[in-house]
Design a protein that fits this description.
Helix content of chain B: 25-40%
Structural class of chain B: alpha/beta
Strand order of the largest sheet of chain A: 2-1-3-4-6-5-11-7
Strand content of chain B: 15-25%
Distance between the termini of chain A: 54 Å
Largest sheet of chain B: 7 strands, mixed
Number of strands of chain B: 22
Shape of chain A: globular
Bound molecules: thiamine diphosphate, iron/sulfur cluster, magnesium ion
Radius of gyration of chain B: 27 Å
Largest sheet of chain A: 8 strands, mixed
Shape of chain B: globular
Oligomer: heterotetramer
Largest interface: B-C, 71 and 71 residues
Order of helices and strands of chain A: HEEHEHHEHEHEHHEEEEHEHHE
């Protein structure tokens, strides 16, 4: 990526379009944080591209003064993959929702993750279909009453991070729409990562699913219900709680330091590169557990797909004996009529 | 129509309109099967040979090699491989029979021939499924060694047809090819199964002899192919030579003579054999060069399109990026993403894949991005007949999307033309910023023809100009006054940052617009842009005949050869009939309506239940009639000749 | 065409062909805005009212309640809700304006009216985007309280239009509705934001007064709706009454009078208001009853189809199974699975969803399973104009699949007709073992009309008979001689175990078949089966006018009302014009061609760029001309009247 | 399901169609084992349905003398879901391949698993596209040369069992085509399970990917490379090897009993109901580890989706006040014109 010629500001990344989200929508906060984060990443506007599907969240590209493509429902990963293969120099952010990315687009999400295409994938999880006025989504909880589930949903929800890990994702993070201090650094880490970085953002839809995350976000309980992961640090939360591995059940358990002889030593230390740990962390949910926030998993050994694709192209160019199309057409058996 | 396709068997004598497409017929038709005992070489204008055997018998290879050798001696030729749908059907089953038909001639031909003059049947199932097509008096070579009880039963024969009168109408040559092959390769110490693998080479040797050719070319080819497997190479060569020698030395039964098909007079140049899918792949690479764009292919395997993906995957040295996506939707979306990024996005598939891509193609129409969509048609609907050919995606190509969503549709008429039409598709896509649909079919995809190799220097480049940073008052929907094409601003260009998407956009600013009047105008604009292409394509010409008369036969796609031959033949009979062939199907050449109206009657042969015919009627209010064959098989020349007769105006 | 849609504003006086569709016009048009100061009740044949406000202002609710009250007093009516695409656009923005138009009349009407006679504008943005449609001299009520600096700027007003001459052509009533509302609900101790929520009810109260109605119905409805939220209920009722009282007591400015629209003479019966999507859902449930089949809906939310899914989800008590699938492909496939299982499989969507379902619909065609596919069309191509109406999926419906894949296509012309056409779709699907496509559109989906409620006893049952265990020589493709429909053998039935799939099948055994002739025959058979339906549907009749003459206006779908009104109006002017309307689009009624040919000229108004017109031309070789409006808005009567004049044969 | 009236045999489940797989294809063995297993399960032919997508494996239904539907590529889970909703009495087996089920059909697979529709899902994993003549599939190993990857595949493969677990699958098993003794009991268990039972079958395609599983299947090494799971039994394999949990890394490690003081006690005991364990087992692969075969996971607490759907229907029927369509049409505001 070319370095921008002069220092950019938030304004440089703000397009002239009126924002069309509902007042109070969590999407505003995410937009603002990203617009503030990009200048610090030293990226240029012209090499930055936002690719989205369809949904409220997928309106995001219109508000960024960069290149952008608001595609069709569920297909952003495929469009983004093609774009990255066409020009690996581009810095691509993919925007999707829980419906766009996990319902109609679930398959593309699976494959973009396993291929490890170098993109930042931001999944705005409001546990609802916003744009189509409030039907339940694949992350909605069982029992949710919506226009299409008047007697309550009966579909067990997908856990985005677990799905992403199962799909072979190599950078998995989770963060919160309105928590700019957490969101910004997660964006920065995702951007640094060369490969598909998957970020689930817990987002509030005040119109159709207000408070879907209040059991995690509400000030009074945030401390007890959020586990803020830091690589190399013990997994502590709340006043003096922490997570410990129960080696018998291979499950994590909540313990209190100072009680039952538990000491700081017993608390599991977070290791981003440990997939087993990530698998266990991904599934934790209140009320039994805090929800794990931050970088759940980051595998730096993997290679981005787009690089490998172009390496083959370069290798073929360097080694092929057929050096022109005329030669290609004449390779193999030919004969001449005079 | 299909009932007529068996016609060649039912009719004897000289009614050309109802027989196959060779002039050799009379020489070969021996009244009641009796035939002069002459072994001297017989000069023929053209001969049709069909190899048929079990999937495992290597018939495709045999056919391809015979094709090659025919090309080398300067014949014109046309081929029709016909695979079973199964990968490896159980040995001996009728549905596991694989066939390869080749038409060799001393004049220019356009079809693989209606009915074989020579049939090689490697087992009972191959005999059962193919003998009905053999012309009366045709030469029938069977591998007697495979006519075991088990095989006969699998083929559904109650008793051995070699032993009764079943085959009396043909000049039957029974040979125990299996035994001869085993003998030929005895020296190599192979297992029986292994040894029998060379059966096809023994047979090829015999057939080469029959046509007065030597085995040199084939030996060379075997040498290359099995360079690292000496035993395989040598045993095959041994079998090949043994088959040839057998013809030369063995006492051939009555009725077998050597065929000699003289050189065709082809226009000077360097030639090669090419299948439609090869030509397509090469055409795409040539288009990438001519447009100065990187080629990005998004594809998902599907018969009969997969080999384009395969071919392009081997051409990475030309900067080609191939992406085997998780499905057809991802494939087309990746191509669209690549086009957005400034590459030439291409996607290849067959009918069911096009159905899946419809929504995304609409996105490319709305965002006005170039995209080449190639549909290699097969039998439908649904999974249909995956390995058979058909032209039944025309409606889908032109109309199969939500909303008013026009795009250019073009087609290829011959395997070699696939090369040029791939370039034409790319030219239109980039010049008009639009997806373009190119239709070929299974018959073109796999059929081979000798192809005069073009030189890149003779092709017109169409380098793409991207919008530059300096574009005044930039927005992404600024249009060229003439083409109505929008700018192509490439991500990475400073100053052209912009957003596009599938929602209707303001004609002035390119921003989202829900304004009613704007939508009306933009819909009209998109339609006009495509309609204008009629000014940028050649007028519809006449392939054969006058440009006015009693009857016009108008077709599109791979029916070209059969129609042209049929019109030629009917004209020889004195019928006032002409042939026109559409290569641009949407929009059509400007003079199409006018040309149609210059004929008293118009017929439209199609390998579907009537599509182009409906469009022509609606567009030009001409009472055109459809001639439809939906059997997964190409038209026979005789079928079209007969349709011509049926539709002549009463005089 | 769209430029004409503004016509009503440009023309004054009595040129009916170019003005809106009410007879009240002359009474209300006050030269130059001056008007007699009469407050007495004015009797009118019909009035068009439009409520316009911010998305958050509750205009849809207000409109719906006014509709209801109009129905209760016996008016005929027709409505047109027009939502913004955004869920909640920022307050005060022009693209966040939500509108609801209603046409009330004392005679039978078919459209929501070309242009409003009365406009209620709740803020500057609503004024800006709607006032252009108001007839000259029309009554304009604005909420002055919302004309703040900020709101004016958001609407793009440089200065306050209430203060200058901008609105001189209308009878302007400025009221600070916000302030009045706050006063009305002061007793409830609500926050300002909360309190202002009742603005719409205050406004409704005023408008009810204006039309001489009381507030009883609305009070009842509020009582039910907010039964558990007393404060909300009571404050809304207070606001409603205050608005009504204001009309009665306040000194109304010059030019405001009470409208009285007398009862329409409707045919006797029990009526209700119904939107197309409600009627559709109920029709499906009725079809389930009439066919004695369980209804299984597979659907994926999409505007404007989602409300059918919602409605059916609430009807589980009728044994309805609804499945919100992961995408459209899964939705249609689940419906196909259900049909295979012996249920009535249904899938609902809009254009982009149909595109995605194309491949699977082909599977249902090949396996000859019943399936009801409902396309509630919206503006295209691609994402297009999701909340706007259009008829541009006709080509896709008829042609949008790979292979020769015909299916019946029918459409609904009015909201109420959606009920009956849902039943018709199910009848055809089960009788002919085929997927059936039913086309409605966004306008029908959301528009309401008074609907004479049918009784189940008056509808003809069509109970399905499954193949029984005793079927002799069973195989799944045994056909009925007359309908050509195959058996429907239901899994779970002993003795009928069988396999089906998307590959071509043998016509005799139902097994996979790659036989060329069989494929030809099966393709013809599938086509014939659908073509035969022409014998099972009513002939095409004339809606209005004679069955021969100068000009036939032929349409399909939701343009019905506008065409019918236009033809009526033109006939009143003495023009020899008739109206025919196609409900079965494939196959068409048998007499269609003959009927078309009985007119000198044929025009085809469509909300697309010309689809039915192309099909009619191709099918019947009639030189029909398209009248096309692609603005996401329904036709105005005046637009069609003007097209009628344009296309009359020169006399 | 109705009990069959008389004891059925393998022949009763064999249709009259010629089998069209290549000689030596692993699919034959699977077919034979299933045809032999069904009679023992006491199912009836008329209530048994096979639903497949497209691929060599998807030809399966034609060979079973039951009801069958050979649908379109990738869509079998959706068709099967609709069928099960239409008639929950049916006993449905879904047949798919690694391409059909994980490439084009990956999204439907995700959702049928999370919804837990009561089906037996058999995924024939030959790590190749058989029917279309040998292109690489989502389970092909990196480096595999195929017609579409002449320079070798560069896409990291999906691990079907990991994907299925990430998708929320509740019955996950793995078995081998030619190992009838293992295959049969796995089928039986899958059939018993009320919910979506996912069975990956390692299948050989002798034509296009011969030996893809020989590192697991070959007689000489089978003992060392296969871990045969049995609920409640220690995870032993080879002569005296076993798996132990390393509580530090939360990873499994191969240990030898008798070496380094390792005893039988140290070996982890398989617990089908433990999801954490399943997550760790799913990823094991030779040469570092044996591959885990058998029932990796079985969660008996979950409810099948189809039951829940019909429970809502029944509840609505029982409680609704609107009891006829005439009443429905007349519910809400109506008025009468005389
Ligand atoms: C093919 C297709 N199907 C359906 C839709 C309708 N649709 C648009 S957005 C959406 C779901 C949005 O949910 P989500 O992705 O969670 O985004 P949110 O609006 O909640 O941000 C749906 C069903 C569509 N636009 N296209
Ligand atoms: C829509 C569509 N796309 C592509 C195909 C072509 N196709 C048929 S089977 C197949 C893949 C088969 O692979 P797999 O599922 O692994 O089955 P196998 O043949 O290996 O058993 C493909 C790509 C198709 N039939 N339909
Ligand atoms: S509907 Fe919900 S998610 Fe969509 S913009 Fe409004 S608040 Fe945000
Ligand atoms: S191609 Fe492979 S998977 Fe397909 S039938 Fe043949 S051996 Fe089996
Ligand atoms: Mg959402
Ligand atoms: Mg496979």
């Amino acid at each position: 990526m070319n370095a921008p010629t002069q220092k950019l500001t938030r304004k440089d990344f703000t397009s002239d379009q009126d924002i069309r989200w509902c007042p109070g929508c969590g999407d505003y906060a995410i937009l603002a944080t990203l617009q503030r984060t990009l200048p610090a990443l030293g990226v240029s506007r012209e090499n930055t591209v936002f690719i989205s599907g369809i949904g409220c969240s997928s309106r995001f590209p219109y508000y960024m003064d960069t290149y952008g493509f608001h595609t069709i429902h569920g297909r952003a990963p495929a469009v983004a993959t093609g774009l990255k293969l066409a020009n690996p120099e581009l810095d691509i952010w993919m925007i999707t929702g829980d419906g766009d990315g996990l319902s109609i687009g679930g398959n593309h999400m699976l494959h973009v993750l396993r291929r490890n295409v170098d993109l930042q994938i931001m999944l705005f999880n409001n546990r609802i279909y916003g744009l189509t006025k409030g039907q339940y989504s694949p992350t909605s909880l069982v029992g949710l009453r919506t226009p299409s589930t008047p007697m309550g949903s009966i579909d067990a929800p997908v856990v985005p991070a677990s799905f992403a890990l199962g799909a072979g994702g190599r950078f998995i993070a989770r963060t919160i729409d309105t928590d700019a201090k957490h969101l910004g650094p997660v964006f920065t880490r995702a951007h640094e990562y060369r490969g598909a970085s998957f970020i689930e953002i817990l987002q509030n839809c005040p119109v159709f699913n207000d408070g879907a995350w209040s059991h995690v976000k509400d000030k009074e309980i945030a401390d007890e219900s959020q586990l803020r992961l830091e690589h190399g640090q013990p997994m502590r939360f709340g006043e003096n709680k922490g997570l410990r591995l129960n080696a018998k059940t291979i499950e994590l358990e909540v313990v209190t330091i100072g009680e039952d002889g538990v000491t700081e030593e017993d608390i599991l230390v977070h290791d981003e590169s440990n997939k087993s740990m990530a698998l266990l962390l991904a599934n934790l949910e209140p009320p039994r557990f805090p929800i794990a926030l931050g970088i759940l998993y980051c595998d730096t050994d993997a290679h981005p797909y787009d690089q490998a694709v172009h390496a083959q192209v370069e290798h073929a160019k360097a080694t092929s004996k057929v050096d022109s199309i005329d030669a290609l057409l004449r390779s193999g058996h030919t004969w001449t009529v005079e | 129509m299909t009932s007529a396709s068996k016609g060649s068997k039912l009719h004897r004598g000289r009614n050309a309109a109802q027989t196959r497409d060779t002039y050799a017929y009379e020489d070969m038709n021996m009244d009641g099967g009796a035939s002069p005992n002459k072994l001297e070489r017989e000069e023929l204008d053209s001969v049709v040979i069909r190899f048929a055997g079990d999937s495992g018998d290597g018939m495709q290879l045999t056919g391809a090699q015979f094709t090659h050798s025919s090309a080398m001696v300067g014949n014109d030729l046309s081929t029709f491989p016909d695979f079973p749908a199964e990968i490896r059907a159980p040995a001996g089953s009728t549905y596991g029979v694989s066939g390869f038909q080749i038409h060799v001639a001393s004049h220019d031909i356009m079809t693989p021939g209606d009915a074989p003059d020579v049939l090689i049947a490697m087992n009972p199932a191959a005999l059962k499924t193919n003998v009905g097509d053999l012309v009366d008096g045709g030469l029938l070579i069977v591998n007697e060694g495979a006519f075991t009880k088990g095989n006969l039963k699998k083929a559904g024969y109650e008793q051995n047809p070699l032993d009764d009168e079943t085959l009396a109408a043909y000049r039957l040559v029974k040979l125990d090819i299996s035994k001869h092959t085993l003998a030929a390769v005895a020296a190599f110490d192979l297992g029986t199964k292994e040894a029998l693998r060379s059966k096809n080479m023994w047979t090829l040797g015999l057939v080469l002899w029959l046509f007065g050719r030597d085995t040199k070319n084939t030996e060379e080819w075997l040498g290359q192919k099995f360079a690292k497997k000496e035993v395989v190479r040598d045993s095959n060569i041994a079998a090949l030579k043994a088959g040839h020698a057998y013809g030369e030395t063995a006492e051939m039964p009555t009725g077998v003579h050597i065929y000699k098909v003289p050189k065709a007079t082809l226009s000077p140049g360097t030639y090669r054999n090419v299948t439609g899918n090869e030509a397509l792949a090469w055409g795409l690479v040539a288009a990438s060069k001519l447009s100065e764009l990187q080629l990005v292919l998004g594809s998902y395997p599907i018969t009969p399109a997969s080999t384009v993906l395969h071919a392009l995957s081997r051409l990475k040295n030309f900067g080609v990026v191939t992406f085997q996506a998780e499905d057809e939707i991802a494939a087309v979306c990746a191509a669209i993403g690549a086009s957005f990024g400034g590459s030439l996005g291409v996607t290849t598939t067959s009918g069911p894949g096009i159905a899946l891509k419809a929504e995304a193609i609409g996105l490319a129409i709305m965002t006005e991005l170039p995209l080449v969509v190639i549909d290699i048609q097969r039998g439908g609907p649904s999974t249909g007949l995956p390995t058979k050919t058909e032209q039944s995606d025309l409606f889908q190509a032109i109309y199969g999307r939500n909303g008013d969503a026009p795009l250019p549709v073009i087609s290829a008429s011959t395997p070699g033309e696939c090369f040029f039409q791939a370039i034409e598709a790319a030219r239109l896509a980039t010049k008009y910023m639009t997806p373009v649909m190119l239709l070929t079919d299974g018959y073109l995809a796999n059929g081979a023809e000798p192809w005069k190799i073009p030189s890149m220097a003779d092709l017109t480049p169409f380098p793409v100009e991207f919008a530059g940073s300096e574009t005044p008052d930039f927005h992404p929907y600024i249009r060229d006054d003439e083409t109505l094409s929008r700018l192509w601003p490439r991500p990475g260009t400073p100053g052209l940052e912009h957003r596009i998407g599938g929602i209707e956009k303001d004609r002035a600013s390119g921003n989202i617009s829900y304004d009613p009047e704007n939508h009306h105008l933009m819909t009209k604009m998109r339609a006009q842009k495509i309609a204008n292409i009629a000014d940028d394509i050649p007028e519809l010409g006449i392939e054969e005949g006058e440009d006015t008369g009693d009857l016009l036969v108008i077709g599109w796609g791979s029916t070209h050869g059969a129609i042209r031959q049929a019109v030629r033949r009917a004209r020889k009979e004195g019928v006032q009939v002409s042939h026109a062939h559409l290569r641009h199907l949407n929009p059509m050449p400007k003079n199409t309506g006018e040309l149609l109206r210059r004929f008293k009657r118009v017929i439209v042969p199609e390998m579907n239940n009537g599509m182009l015919v409906k469009i022509l009627r609606g567009e030009y209010l001409v009472d055109a009639k459809g001639i439809n064959k939906i059997s997964g098989q190409p038209f026979k020349v005789a079928e079209i000749v007969s349709a011509i007769h049926d539709h002549l105006p009463a005089s």
